Amino acid sequence: MTKSYTEQTMMSSEPQDSATWTDECQRSQNEQDMEKNNGALESMHGGLEDDDEDGLNRLDEDDEEEEEEEEEEEGDDQKPKRRGPKKKKMTKARMQRFKMRRHKANARERNRMHGLNDALESLRKVVPCYSKTQKLSKIETLRLAKNYIWALSEILRSGKSPDVISFVQALCRGLSQPTTNLVAGCLQLNPRTFLPEQTQEIPSHMQPASASFAAHPYSYQTPGLPSPPYGTMDSSHVFHVKPHSYGSALEPFFETALPLTDCTSPSFDGPLSPPLSVNGNFSFKHEPSSEFEKNYAFTMHYQAAAGLAGPQGHGPIYPSSAPRCEIPMENIMSYEGHTHHERVMNAQLNAIFHES
DNA sequence: TAGGCCATCTGGTCCT
DNA sequence: AGGACCAGATGGCCTA
Question: Which chain C nucleotides are covered by protein, judged by CB under 7 A?
Answer without folding.
Answer: 3-7, 10-14
